[in-house]
């Protein structure tokens, strides 16, 4: 059965898409008409022709109708969406997570109920709310050792449950006495926005924890690793106490210096924008802020503020060093049978290249100083294999022993 929240959010997103397609169609129509009719420019200067006025009116009617429908939808369903307790099944949660990765910043800006609000989950998938009075009930037998697992782009806390091998969080609980928590967040937002919010949430968590926290460990997959580094930066800038409890940070296939997929997508969008006929179809402009941040691996507001991320511009990131006092571990994957061969070097795990996952960079100020024993590269694995592969889990268990 479809929940009211899902129905509300899906309908609102569909109407937003209708508005966007109408805008693209109108732009293409005007561009083609301008070239097909030599008199169009004169008519455009002197005022629209009767035919053009009629077409212009048609587009405005569609946009106005869409707007009215959205407002009516929001007014009629929003109260039911807010009161609904747990609207998502495991499968629908994965679909919503993917939507948040692609257009999560738009969902948040448009107050769409499909936008994910950052929250912690326990091993059963229940929300853990530091500000509530039932924290002890949602984390029974809370340990002084906390591990927080942070998923990557278009994923959710559900993906840590494991497709094949097992649950990394519960393995750490059984082997080393950690209490595992799983972060769920909107991956379409800027990485820095999620980093700042995670920093604040971690502070609330350690303050409200049922027992005194002795040790905090953060594990991030893909974008999750960048969110962790951003949170460490903002937490250290504000001198928040949780940062002094952070003993370990682990990065699984994190694109510390960007992803080639994001770079290729940006290049395609940039080239399409140079041609009038295809410029309206450069849909890469409408992808989320989180995806655009992955072009270079932006961690801070300064890395994107005041910059048109759809334009071609060099890597102007502010160098963010690894937090001192914390042990940092890096895991990378390569699809090839040997790490040293060309497919492994060039393609990495298909989404992140090896040099980016290991923090290597030609610029010394951006290169991440990693001890040899704190970095592992696994062969014949892809990007998502890092979440639930036994050899990866065994390495993490060994490091955190």
Automatic annotation (TrEMBL):
InterPro entries for the chain: AB_hydrolase_fold, PGAP1-ab_dom-like
Q: Which domain of life is it from?
A: Bacteria
**Residues of the GPI inositol-deacylase PGAP1-like alpha/beta domain:** 146-273
Keywords of the record, alphabetical order, are: Hydrolase
A molecular-function term among this protein's GO annotations:
hydrolase activity
Record protein name field: Alpha/beta hydrolase
Q: Say which species the protein is native to.
A: Marinobacter xiaoshiensis
């Amino acid at each position: 059965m479809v929940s009211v929240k899902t129905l509300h959010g899906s309908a609102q997103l569909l109407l937003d898409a209708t508005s966007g397609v109408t805008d693209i169609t109108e732009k293409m129509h005007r561009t083609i008409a301008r070239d097909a009719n030599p008199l169009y420019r004169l008519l455009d200067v002197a005022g629209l022709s009767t035919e053009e006025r009629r077409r212009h009116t048609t587009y405005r009617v569609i946009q106005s109708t869409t707007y009215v429908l959205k407002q009516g939808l929001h007014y009629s369903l929003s109260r039911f969406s807010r009161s609904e307790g747990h609207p998502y099944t495991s499968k629908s949660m994965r679909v919503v997570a993917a939507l948040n990765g692609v257009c999560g910043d738009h969902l948040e800006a448009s107050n769409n109920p499909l936008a994910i609000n950052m929250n912690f989950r326990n091993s059963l998938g229940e929300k853990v709310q530091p500000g509530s009075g039932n924290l002890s009930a949602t984390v029974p037998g809370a340990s002084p050792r906390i591990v927080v697992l942070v998923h990557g782009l278009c994923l959710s806390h559900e993906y840590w449950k494991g497709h094949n091998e097992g649950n990394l969080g519960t393995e750490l609980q059984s082997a080393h006495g950690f209490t595992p928590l799983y972060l769920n967040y909107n991956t379409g937002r800027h990485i820095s926005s999620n980093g700042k919010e995670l920093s604040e949430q971690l502070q609330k968590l350690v303050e409200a924890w049922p027992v005194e926290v002795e040790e905090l460990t953060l594990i991030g997959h893909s974008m999750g690793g960048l969110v962790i580094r951003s949170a460490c930066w903002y937490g250290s800038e504000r001198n928040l106490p949780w940062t002094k409890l952070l003993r370990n940070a682990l990065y699984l296939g994190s694109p510390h210096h960007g992803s080639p997929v994001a770079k290729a997508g940006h290049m395609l969008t940039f080239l399409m924008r140079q041609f009038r006929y295809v410029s309206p179809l450069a849909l890469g402009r409408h992808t989320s802020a989180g995806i655009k941040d992955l072009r270079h691996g932006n961690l801070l507001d300064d890395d994107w503020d005041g910059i048109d991320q759809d334009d071609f511009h060099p890597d102007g990131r502010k160098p963010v060093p690894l937090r001192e006092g914390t042990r940092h571990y890096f895991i990378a994957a390569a699809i090839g049978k040997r790490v040293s061969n060309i497919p492994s070097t060039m393609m990495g795990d298909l989404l992140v290249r090896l040099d980016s996952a290991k923090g290597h960079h030609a610029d010394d100020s951006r290169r991440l100083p990693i001890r040899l024993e704190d970095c592992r590269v696994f062969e014949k694995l892809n990007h998502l294999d890092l979440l639930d592969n036994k050899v990866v889990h065994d390495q993490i268990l060994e490091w955190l022993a």
